[in-house]
Every structure is written in C-alpha cells, then in structure tokens.
Specification:
Number of strands of chain B: 31
Structural class of chain C: alpha+beta
CATH architecture of the largest domain in chain C: Roll
Helix content of chain C: 25-40%
Distance between the termini of chain B: 60 Å
Chains: A alpha+beta (285), B alpha+beta (775), C alpha+beta (164)
Strand order of the largest sheet of chain C: 2-1-5-3-4
CATH architecture of the domain at 360-451 and 621-768 in chain B: 2-Layer Sandwich
Number of helices of chain C: 5
CATH class of the domain at 360-451 and 621-768 in chain B: Alpha Beta
Radius of gyration of chain C: 16 Å
Distance between the termini of chain C: 57 Å
Oligomer: heterotrimer
Shape of chain B: globular
CATH superfamily of the domain at 360-451 and 621-768 in chain B: Aldehyde oxidase/xanthine dehydrogenase, molybdopterin binding domain
Number of strands of chain C: 5
CATH topology of the domain at 360-451 and 621-768 in chain B: Aldehyde Oxidoreductase, domain 4
Radius of gyration of chain B: 27 Å
Number of domains of chain C: 2
CATH topology of the largest domain in chain C: Ubiquitin-like (UB roll)
Shape of chain C: elongated
Largest sheet of chain C: 5 strands, mixed
Strand content of chain C: 15-25%
Chain lengths: 285, 775, 164
C-alpha cells in the first residue's frame, strides 16, 4: 500500500499555487492535510501525477470573523475548532462537531477546506457548511468565484471546483444570538465515518421557532437539506412532539445509500434518531 | 523468595518501550521487495500472465510456471471422511479466491514493486463462484475441487445410543439456530518474511512473523525439496498472531525459493489490505442446536448440526477440520450431556482460507450452548442460574460424551461468584426503572470450559497427519552462572520469557533476570511446536519446570562435592548452594563445573552434561473454566449496544504471573467483544470481499471496550505439573455468549433474542423494527 | 523515479537523506533514518501505530510524506528515554503492563506523550477520547489507559471526572 509516483511542488504563496494548478490542470491535485487523499493514494484509488502541497502557504492559514461571516482559510486545521473560534452559537456548534471528526492526530493535520473539497458524503464539515449556508471561495489565475454550499456539492466526491481552482477559504455565516444549533451523528466505533448525521440550526424568538434548518449527512451522495422537515418546525414551540414529527419527515425525504453497514430502512431509522437528538441538543444549549 | 505468583514486570518490555524491538519488517530493510499479484476473481481459469512492458533492471516476475515440480501445501487428517486438498504456492491453472497470490514481482523498493505488480496483466477467465455455505451446498453448485464433489472437505458424525430416547421422552425440546459471521484475527503486525541467502554456507535464513518456526522450517524444506539443514527459520519479535500466524502460507516457501534461486535477500511485508483479504479468516459457522430437557430442567440429550465455511483450501498443518471437528468434539462444554448427537461439516468455498483464531470454535459453541440455556430457562420457566446449576458438571474427574476427561475445575463456583458480584436484585431494579424511561438494560452471563495445554494424545485423537504436542526445553548454566533455557515453543507477545523465567528461577534459587529464555530460532532451539491452543504456560512451562529440576539436581550433586555434603541436603537459594551453614555461589560452582572439571572426579557422570539437561513435557490436557458476565444497554432507536459492565470469574489453575494473566484476559475479552458486536468479514455473492480496510472491518477502540473486572479462582489439578492451566484464549470465548445473552435480556420486552454474531446495530434494529415492547 | 535531497530533524538530530516524494514519513523514518521504532500497522490512517509528533502535534506518519516534514521538528519513540532512564510514561507502561506484543506501543506512547505535554488537565472521558485514536489488539486497552492515567497522576495532570 504505497502511493504511485508523483511530482511534488510546495509553493509558498497562493499565486504560486494557482500558477501550478493552471499548468497542471487535471493532472494536479492539491495536498492540504492529506488525511483523506493520502489513504486513497495508498490504495492507489487516487494517483495524481502532480501534488501541489499548500501546507507552506502561510497566507492561507487564517480563521477570523469579518462582518457577518467567519472566514476560514484553506490551511486551518480541524483541531483549531476544538475550542470555540468565535463567541456565540457558531463557535459552539463547530466545537461540538469537530470532536466527531476522526481522531486527534487526524484533526491536527486535516483541514476544514480540505474536507469541503474532498466532499465525502459522510463529512461533518460538508453537512455543517450546507446546513448553515456557507459560501466557498474558489480561486484560479483568472480570479475568484464565490460558490454557495448548495451549488458546491454535486455528487459523491464531486464539487463545483474546477481542476485549475483552489478552494482558498470558506465563509460561514455568523449566527446571531437567537440561533441555537445541535449536532448528532451515529457511528459504530469512535471516530469512524458516520452512518448518518444531522446538523440543525433554529432561530427561536419568544419561545417560538422562527427559522429552522436541518442538514443530513452520510445518507446519500451529498449532504442534503431536509427542508420539509425544517418547515414543520417553523412557528412551533420546541418540544418532543414536534421533534418527532420533524424527524419522521426527515427520515423519508431522501433516497438512502445502501452499503455494508446499513440498509435503506436502517438509514432512515438512524436519521429519525439523529435528527431528534440534534434538535434536543439545540434547545438544551 | 518465591517468584511464581508475583506480578513481575516483564523482562521483554524495556526494548519494546524504547522502540528497539526487532520485528520482521525492521529486519527486512534493504532486502529486495516482493509484491504479490493477487487474484481479482473468486474463481477462474488462468489464461495467461503477462509481465509489465518495462521491467526495470533487476526486477523479476515469478509465476506458478516457474515453480513447476514443487509440491503443494497439503495437510492431512487420517480420517475416511476427510478430503485432502493441495494448495499450490502459486497456481498455474485456476484461482480459487479473491486475494489468492497468482504471481510475484520483485523490485528494489516496495513502492516500485507495487508499481510493477499493477502492470502485470492477468488474463483470467472468471467462473461462477460460491462464497457462502448455502451457495456451496446448493444442488448443482460449482465444485471447487474435483476431489470433493459436494464441496464437503471434512465431516464428523456421531449419534449416541440414548439420543433418540432422550428426545422422544423429553418434556421440552428447545431448539436454536445460530450464525457466527466471519472474522479476521487482525494482529497489529501483519504477516511477513525475509529470506536471506548466505553465500558462505549455502543456507537460507527465513525471518518470519510466525507462531510455529520449527513446523514452518520442516514444511518449507519438504515443499522445496531442499535439505532441512539448509534452512533456518527465525521468529523475531512478533506483533501478535492469535492463531493466524500458525499456518504455512504460500508466501514463505516462495521467499525461500527466491533466496536460493537468486542468491539474495527477499522480503515480503504483508500490508493491511492483504492481511484482511488473503491471510486467514475464521469463525464462519452455522449451528442448529436441540436440547432435550426434563420438566425439572435436566438436560437429557443434545443434538447439534455444525456447518463451517473453511474457505478455498485447508490450512497447514492443522487442516480445515480444526473448526468443525472442535465444535463436534467439544459442544457439550461444561454440561452433563448423557446422550449426544453431532454432525459437523467443513464446506469449501471461494473465500480466503480458514485458520485457527483464539478460541477456534469455542466462541461459537459457547454462544450456542449458552443461548440454548437461556432459551430453555425462558421456555421452561426456570431461573437461568438454577437451570445451569442443575446441569453443570459438579464432580471430577468426569468423562465426557466424547471421551475426554474433565479434570478438577470450578464450573458452579465460578458462576456463583459472578452472580454474587453482579448483585442481580439491584440490577433487576435498575432494569425496571430504566424500562419506564424507554431505556433497555440487560444482563447476561456465560459459563464455559476450555481444553488447554493439550499435547500429543489430544492432537493424535484428531487423526492429524502432523501431530503437534510435546514441547522440549534445553537448559544449561553457563560458566559465568547464567541460565539459558532454549525452548521449542515460540511466543508472539504473551510474555512467556518472563513467566518461564519466574518458574525456573524458583526451582534454581536465582532471580528471573538471571534466566535467559531463548526462543524463535530453529538454529538455537530444540524442535518444538509453538504458542497456540492455550498451551505455552502449561506445556513449555511444564518442560521448563522439569528441566530446571534436572539442572537443580546436577547443581546439588556438584555442590555436594564441593561442600562435602549429601546432595539431598543441598538447598539452592539466593543464587547460592547451601549445605547447612556452608555455602557457595552458584556462579562459582558453574565456573568450576565447566572449567575445573578435574575437581569433580571421574564418578560424576558424563562431564559434558554437568550443567546442562533437556526435558520435554507432553500432557493430555487440562480444562480451564470461567464465567463471563456482561451488563449492557441497548439503544433501541439505533441498535447500538453499550457495555456498562464486564466481569470475568476465571479459573486457570495456578497463576505464574497474575499481571500477565490479567492482560491475557483483558485482550481476549476485547477480541470477544469485537466478535460479539463489531467485526465481520463480508463477501459479496460473487466472492468479492467488501471489507478490505480498517474503515470497513472494525476492531473496537478504547472508546468501545470497557474496563474488565477479574476474579481469579485457582483450582489446582494434577493434569498440569505446574498447576497452571491455559488461559490465552478464554477471554475471547466467553464474551460473545455473555453479551448475546445480555442483549437478549435487554430486548426481552420486544420478544426477540440474539442468534447471530456480530450483533451489529443494523441487525438489532432489523429485529426490533415494527415491534413494540410489552410491559 | 526522481529522488530529492532533504534534511529531517528527528529527536534533535539531523538526517540528510534522499527520498522519493511519494515516500511516507513513516517509511522515511524507518528506511532512510534507521528509526524502526515507528511501526506501520495499516498505512491508511486508521490504526495509529505510526503516530509521531511533528511540531508538537501528534500525526499519523503514514499520512504525511517525508518530504513534507523538512524543517519540522519530529519526535519518535526512540527519543523518549533519557539515556538509560525511561520517560515517566514509558516506565508507567512497564509498571502497569501496558503492552504485550509491543507493535502498537510506539504509536500509543507518542500519542500519550503529546496528551501529557498538553496544558489542559486530563480526565477519564478525555483520556478515552484521545486514546480511541489508536488500535491495540493484545491488551484490550485497559492497561494502556491505566498506564497513561497513572503517568498523568504522577505529573499532576489528572482530574477526576465530575460524576455523571
């Protein structure tokens, strides 16, 4: 299980990285944390001819709030989020979610942008970005494109990113103080890819839910929004009965993946459970 | 000072802790890298194998045609209903499972060998495959080996005379079908070997991560038709084995063949994917069990039908009989079974070869028996403890239905101690309170015995063509007074060096650090078998004790001469020989014995052996026993099982090093939990394997394995001269049954119970779907 | 296959070596630097046997290329003991039988060394959370957890968890 040979470049600036991507196009592959890419290369399921290692581009190592968004640069490692990076519900949600991403040594290398670019259906960050309505910044020598999370995820391991582009940052909406978020996932073993997960965000005002978002991950080719389930919550008071209704709706709003771990029926069972649990957590925080 | 029974930190550890251990891959650095090209098809005819277009300088491709004239790996059982199958080192005509090695490429680095392996063109005409028991046994199923038209490689049948009457007259017949899915032993270090040709002597040294170096040497020499004396096999530090590393696998003779042919050094280090798909699997079994009970719960008869999926070939040397025939012989376990009927079949399929794995068939048969007992208790309305108490063997020695002798043990006491410790009334109160909240707790336990430390007679009874059994120890005191014990057994991480040194130290009045245990090298140790079947401490330990006693006698004779005393009055203690008040250091005595033999006169027999001796031990076997108890909580929404408490009451006789014994139990239970809840090798219908990475095959982590409480009982039986019984496997045996019973207890309100291992969350949900609990 | 010259700093020593870019840090340490204490158990980032510390962070050395580690400070199991004296963590593994076959041990030692060097105090939940990163097949983890727990106590890093 040794990777196939490749040419290696370690540019020091974003511009240099984009120039390399422009040159190598389809043959080039960006190496950030490498925690998904390198195992795939070890199995020789990926065999890029050229690796463009962005780990030495300090300009991409940032994570800061700016106006209405949290800007997370391509080199921000998962571990950074273990203590809240911003005050308020967003920082708390990211800190809760990140503890479910693999394990400590993976989190010390892997990056949020890397996960978004890899687009594993069971990625916690992908589900989070979609649920919160993140914006992704794709840069190339031609300039920058802003892509909404809804447009970003196209299929399994497939995004809107072009071969000559680098995902330089993701912008997550800073949630105001009326927002409450919850996360729940199910896996058989600590740190494994989840068989199902839910990210929920509720805006509660005067004891009534004004806005709701429910995102599901690990259940289909991409993360998905359970919009109908979320709609059931709007105008309701938080509580077990509405949670169950929303969970039930969420469990039937998608076509589940079937694999060795779960039949479609079982995935729906899991969605029912994680949606309910994420909603409970949201109002408990 | 008594070293036996002390929790002595292991002598093995400092080097391992410093990263200075020496495993096969460490020794292999610098050797030419061998990469196996493995079959992508479960069954097919080999049309051609085409080398890569560009072979770099020094690169090689080896196929079965290059090995023409060599024999096949063909273990035998002298039974009329066993079909011997030969496994070629590399096949020429057909492939039989996904992952079977069909060619080897050699390059200067592992990366480049892998590059080349990818470019080898395999033209294989795929044929229909059978991947599971049902497919292999279906009428008209494809036949793997023409010698075995029905795909049955081995069969055992027995029906004792009282059986029909027992069932006809039974007040209750309790029936159960169980399924144990396939597992991989998954040692952290995979297999691997490095064969190095020595131009000066013409010999080859094969360093291999193995459990039976002497057997491997003989087997390889025979296969390659080479002088055995030209081969040295070394098992260096071995990163776990658990049975998987017992077998003679095709890769090892291939390495030796390469080293001899090309007069160089060749290494193959198995990667994890290879280990998961192409090393050895186990536990793929299906049983139907019927128990005939009296109204009072007395078991009158037992009938079992065992099917074992043994894979594509028969593992050498123990054969594919190892699982089915063990289940056949040992199903009744610790219970009184007046009439027994059994049928066991080993079925060949287009899957990886089955080999022994910690506990072999016992995890499955204990699961079967203990699920039967719980079902019977429910069906008969008898308390589960009382039902077992009525049926457990309670007087020893006891001859079993299959003619084995159960030596002194503590079946009932172990159960009672576990039940006491569990505090059942308090648990039932917690369970009832939890159910009100929609939480489902369960408590289950399992009682079992395990034949351990069995030598020649037991293996001979299985009619094995190669009968392992005895262990030999050569012991000597060097001129500087150090003790060297060369053992034929070969440990793979258990701590045998420490425990054997403790035993020897006590017999010779020295400290364990003065005793060097030499193992795992066919050049430096006497012929022996290895570590498997919970035998190391019993058999190698017994041999060490006998050898140490012989050496002690010699020391006493020599000391008596020097101290002018009667040998019978010499006491060995604190590194000295005492005759009353007079004493001399053993080191001084050793120097004189070797270098001043003139001092001892001609009547001290044969000077060459003044301070050396040899001993062997070959017992019939001794039964360990245990009761495992588990408390679980089942999340009925997701099917996830959390183990809240795990308790082991175990009786392995005298404990030589209780710290090591505890470690064996912890590790065994963790593997048993893996068997119960997590690990499963999965094949698609076409024989493709779907669990080729550790992201799909799931050994549990520290987050899933609870702390394990242990209560030791020490029944000393005369079946083992050290008093020790084997304990390496027991942990793995009890856990699936205890956990299966605990989950079943938790889910009783839903009217379902567990009959399939592992009890994955998906399987549990499938049982529960559409069911509501009854209060 | 082009190789590149790089300099690695491992346990404070520099190694001037030549590597193919595709060679993982684990293979680089083992083959080029002669540091075979770092073991490979899966080569796909699950088992943790190859865990080393790079710039004070635990990493899977099978998921990083050797060439990426140039200029970084790398620590491996060989650097833990101070001459003849085992580190307190190594000693605790010895005292509490935290190893059997020893193959996973270097990875656990490096992971736990990082945990013990971290500022934050450690409780039972955090101990299990962090150590669940690595696989062991022999010990059932109990004595590994115990060894780290006792070492943490000795270093004043342990806090009892709040009762559930």
């Amino acid at each position: 299980m040794k990777p196939a040979a490749f040419d290696y470049h370690a540019p020091l600036t974003p511009e240099a990285a984009l120039a390399l991507l422009a040159t190598h196009g389809e043959d080039g592959k960006v190496l950030a944390g490498g925690q998904s890419l390198v195992p795939t290369m070890a199995f020789r399921l990926a065999r890029p001819a050229v690796l463009i290692d962005i780990n030495r581009i300090e300009a991409l190592n940032f994570c800061r709030p700016e106006g209405e968004v949290l800007r997370v640069g391509a080199l921000t490692r998962h571990a950074r989020f273990e203590t809240p990076v911003v005050t308020g519900p967003l920082g708390l949600l990211l800190a809760d979610v990140v503890r479910n991403i693999a394990h400590t040594p993976i989190r010390s290398r892997g990056t949020m942008c890397g996960s978004l670019a890899h687009a594993d259906p069971a990625s916690e960050w992908c589900c989070t970005a979609l649920t919160l309505g993140a914006t992704l910044v794709a840069a190339s020598t031609a300039g920058e494109r802003l892509i909404t999370a809804g447009d970003w995820f196209q299929s399994i391991f497939t995004t809107a990113l072009q071969p000559n582009e680098l995902l330089t940052e993701v912008r997550l909406p800073m949630l105001g103080s009326g927002w409450r978020c919850g996360f729940s996932e199910f896996n058989r073993r600590a740190g494994d890819f989840a068989l199902a997960m839910a990210v929920v965000a509720l805006q509660v005002e005067g004891g009534v839910i004004r806005e709701a978002r429910i995102g599901l991950g690990g259940v289909g080719a991409t993360p998905i929004l359970a919009a109908e389930a979320a709609a059931l919550l709007v105008g309701q008071s938080p509580g077990e009965v509405v949670w169950s209704e929303a969970a039930e709706r969420a469990a039937t709003c998608f076509e589940p993946t079937e694999d060795i771990n779960a039949t479609p029926e079982y995935r729906r069972d899991l969605v029912r459970a994680v949606v309910k649990r994420a909603l409970r957590k949201a109002v408990a925080t | 000072m008594n070293w036996t029974g002390k929790r002595l930190p292991r002598l093995e550890d400092p080097a391992l802790l410093r990263g200075e251990g020496s495993y096969t891959a460490d020794i292999a650095i610098g050797a030419r890298a061998v990469r196996l090209v493995r079959s992508p098809f479960a069954s097919g005819r080999i049309i051609s194998i085409t080398p890569p277009a560009e072979m770099s300088a020094g690169a090689l491709l080896v196929t079965g045609r290059d090995l023409a004239g060599l024999g096949t790996i063909r273990p035998t059982l002298a039974r009329f209903n066993y079909v011997a199958i030969g496994q070629p080192i590399l096949p020429v005509e057909r492939v039989h499972f996904v992952g079977q090695a069909v060619a080897a490429v050699i390059a200067d680095t592992p990366e480049r060998a892998e590059d080349l392996a990818e470019q080898v063109m395999l033209d294989i005409d795929p044929e229909d495959a059978v991947a599971d028991l049902d497919a292999a046994m279906a009428p008209g199923a494809p036949v793997l080996h023409p010698e075995a038209p029905g795909n049955v490689l081995v069969e055992g049948q027995l029906r004792q005379s009282g059986c029909d009457a027992a069932f006809a007259g039974a007040a209750h017949v309790v029936e159960l079908g169980i399924r144990s899915r396939r597992q991989n032993a998954t040692p952290m270090e995979g297999r691997g070997g490095c064969a190095t040709f020595d131009r000066a002597t013409g010999r080859v040294r094969l360093t291999a991560s193995c459990q039976m170096p002497h057997m491997l040497r003989t087997g390889i020499a025979e296969l390659l038709g080479m002088p055995e004396a030209d081969l040295q096999v070394v098992a260096p530090d071995v990163g776990g084995g658990f049975g998987q590393k017992m077998a003679l696998f095709p890769e090892y003779p291939l390495l030796v063949w390469l080293a001899r042919k090309y007069r160089g050094s060749f290494a193959w280090i198995e990667d994890r994917n290879e280990n998961l798909i192409a090393s050895a699997h186990s536990r793929d079994q299906r049983h139907v069990i019927r128990g005939a009970f009296d109204a009072d719960g007395t078991l009158r008869g037992l009938e079992v039908d065992i099917l074992s999926n043994v894979g594509a070939f028969s593992c050498y040397p123990v054969t594919c009989g190892v699982e089915p025939l063990m289940a056949f012989a040992e199903y009744p376990g610790p219970y009184k079974v007046p009439a027994y009927a059994a049928r066991a079949r080993g079925i060949t399929t287009n899957t990886c070869v089955m080999a022994p794995y910690r506990g072999v068939s016992r995890p499955a048969i204990t699961f079967g028996m203990e699920r039967l007992m719980d079902r019977a208790a429910a069906q008969l309305g008898i308390d589960r403890v009382a039902l077992r108490r009525r049926n457990l063997v309670d007087s020893f020695p006891c001859r079993t239905a299959m003619g084995m002798t159960l030596d002194d043990a503590s079946y009932i006491e172990a159960m009672d101690r576990a039940i006491d410790a569990a505090d059942l009334p308090a648990f039932r109160a917690r369970q009832a309170a939890a159910r009100v909240e929609g939480r489902y707790l369960g408590l289950g336990f399992a009682v079992f015995n395990e034949r351990t430390g069995y030598g020649t007679p037991a293996f001979a009874a299985r009619s094995m063509g190669i009968v392992p059994g005895y262990e030999v120890v050569d012991i000597a005191m060097t001129p500087l007074g150090e003790i060297e014990a060369r053992i034929g057994a070969s440990p793979h991480g258990q701590g045998l060096r420490t425990a054997l040194a403790q035993l020897i130290a006590d017999r010779l009045g020295v400290t364990p650090d003065a005793v060097r245990i030499i193992h795992g090298d066919t050049d430096r140790t006497p012929y022996g078998w290895g570590t498997f079947a919970s035998r190391g401490m019993v058999i190698a330990g017994g041999a060490c004790q006998i050898a140490a006693d012989k050496l002690a006698d010699r020391l006493r004779v020599l000391a008596a001469r020097m101290l002018q005393a009667d040998p019978a009055g010499i006491v060995l203690r604190d590194g000295q020989a005492f005759a009353g008040e007079a004493s001399m250091p053993l080191a001084e005595l050793a120097r004189l014995a070797h270098q001043r033999s003139d001092l001892f006169g001609s009547d001290v027999a044969d000077r060459r052996f003044n301070l050396a001796d040899t001993a062997s031990y070959d017992p019939g076997g001794t039964f360990s026993n245990a009761c495992h108890l588990a408390e679980v909580e089942v999340d009925v929404e997701t099917g996830l099982v959390r183990i809240a408490r795990y308790l082991v009451v175990e009786d392995a006789g005298r404990l030589i090093n209780p710290m090591i014994a505890d470690g064996q139990v912890h590790g065994g239970v963790a593997q048993g939990i893996a068997n119960a809840l997590f690990e499963e090798i999965i094949y698609a219908e076409d024989g493709n394997i779907l669990t080729g990475s550790l992201a799909d095959y799931l050994p549990p982590t520290a987050a899933e394995i609870p702390d394990i409480e242990i209560i030791h009982l020490e029944t000393i039986s005369d079946a083992s001269i050290t008093g020790a019984k084997g304990l390496g496997e027991g942990g793995a045996i009890g856990a699936p049954a205890a956990i299966g019973n605990a989950i079943s207890d938790a889910l009783a309100p839903f009217g379902v119970d567990i009959t399939e291992l592992p009890a994955t969350p998906a399987r549990i949900r499938a049982l529960l779907r559409g069911r509501e609990p009854t209060p | 296959m082009t190789t590149q010259r790089i300099t690695l700093t491992v346990n404070g020593m520099t190694h001037a070596i030549e590597v193919e870019p595709r060679r993982t840090l684990a293979d680089t340490l083992r083959d080029q630097c002669g540091l075979t204490g770092t073991h490979l158990g899966c080569e796909h980032g699950v088992c943790g046997a190859c865990t080393v510390i790079v710039d004070n962070q635990p990493v899977r050395s099978c998921l990083m290329f050797g060439i990426q580690a140039e200029g970084r400070s790398i620590r491996t199991v060989e650097g833990l003991a101070d001459g003849a004296t085992l580190s307190p963590l190594q000693q605790s593994f010895w005292d509490h039988h935290g190893l059997q076959c020893g193959f996973c041990t270097p990875g656990f030692l490096m992971l736990a060394t990082w945990l013990l060097e971290r500022e934050t105090p450690i409780d039972e939940a955090e101990l299990r959370h962090v150590l669940s990163s690595n696989l062991c097949r022999c010990t059932g983890y109990q004595n590994i957890l115990k060894a780290v727990r006792e070492a943490a106590k000795g270093l004043g890093k342990w806090v009892e968890s709040a009762p559930a």
